[in-house]
Amino acid sequence: MEDKPGSGRRRAAPRFIDRETVVDAALEVFSEMGFHGASTREIARVAGTSLSNLYNYFGSKSAILEFVLEETSRTLADRLEAAAASDCEGTLSKIEAAVRAYVDFILERPRASLIGITEIRYLHGDNRAEVVRQRDRTEKVFRDLISAGLAEGACDVRNVGSAMRGVVTICNSMSTWYRPAGELSAETLADLQVDLVFGLIRATERPPRG
Fold it and tell me: What percent helix, strand, coil does the chain show, rounded to 5?
């Protein structure tokens, strides 16, 4: 309803916000409503700003999703590559470090992790290409480590590609069931994921804990 002349009421100025606030709001809305059910208007409401101000940061709902998935995939790949390049002794220790890095990422960013595996189907063409490139980096980390473990006799798999996909699936799946209020500690969650991965690749032994 429009303000009446002389009423003394003034419209509130739109709240100007940063991209991080927009992304946090988008993650909240996407995680609760899914990409299809979400709207830019609802994202703006959660961010505490106007719809027109939201468009100062992103031109569409798809652009928000693209940014979130690309940034999430790149950060995860960076962490896994760092874990694989660490000075851990032996390939199995490096695999364990990579799995633990994956778990840490999910614990830190559960919403982004869940959206990353459930909503990518809504990206197409160039919007999807960069996200896929970043995910290829994640797959390469585990593919290279499993290949090295196989060559060393530290694990026994029939097909490296199949084993890699299984490992990534195990790690990804945690995003669908992890709850911050759960009773398991971060260390226990990581231990469980490592055990699953080592079972899948038929590791010859469990590396010593660091």
Answer: 70, 0, 30
